[in-house]
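Problem statement: downstream parser choked on a complex file, so we are re-checking the raw output for the magnesium ion run. The parser issue turned out to be on our end (a line-ending mismatch), but while we're here, posting the original submission so the record is complete.
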Amino acid sequence: MIDLRGAAKIYATGGEDVVALDDVSLRIDNGDFAAIVGPSGSGKSTLLHILGCLDTPTRGEYILDGVATQELDDFGLAAVRNRKIGFVFQQFNLLPRLTTQKNVELPLTYAGVSRAERGRRAFDALQRVRLAHRVTHRPNQLSGGERQRAAIARALVIGPSIVLADEPTGNLDTKVGREIVALFRELNETLGVTVVLVTHDPEIAAACRRTIRIVDGRIVGDTRHA
Ligand SMILES: Nc1ncnc2c1ncn2[C@@H]1O[C@H](COP(=O)(O)OP(=O)(O)OP(=O)(O)O)[C@@H](O)[C@H]1O
Ligand SMILES: [Mg+2]
């Protein structure tokens, strides 16, 4: 479970300090499917990065599945990420020279998994996102929706308990965006993976089970819907 307590994130820049998050407390149960919404600059990406152990709060506590992550060093944080967190980005972040299959294998390569097992697990993940017919394509030979599905397969390949997505439909047209959020929903329901996504799109947020609204680094709304 995600349990953030009184978290602040303050960026020290040349001039004034920037308070990106201000006293944010948030619990997200395992298996939940939540959207984070709010204006540009309100702290959504900062919050997602903290939830994903890509960044740490300046103040406050972040307890992830019972582990007080603020006590971990960079090594410990990386281990948590590699074991249980998958990331999906607006720009897909696929490596252009690698095939779909090799892109999806990459997190396993870093984790030292054998070649045969990498191949098998990446193919499984590609089947889950219905991209098994595109394994030898390179990213520039895929449509936008297919690129995002490849990126989702890459996030899934480690068997994460949490998938975090920062505006995963931001570069896609409306119809493809709907398909991607339907895929997240399916993965949430069939694998039980916790999904937290950032979106600007009210329709995408409405397709999630919970909407967390953030303004000026503070949570100002948290609603559940069907
Ligand atoms: N590394 C950084 N150094 C200094 N300030 C930063 C840094 N990263 C983010 N900020 C500031 O923190 C605030 C929150 O940024 P964040 O990226 O979390 O916003 P966001 O809600 O994701 O916005 P958007 O919808 O535009 O992606 C912004 O004012 C931003 O300028
Ligand atoms: Mg952002």
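For whoever reads this later: Strands lie at 2-11, 18-28, 33-37, 59-64, 67-68, 85-89, 162-166, 194-198, 210-215, 218-224.
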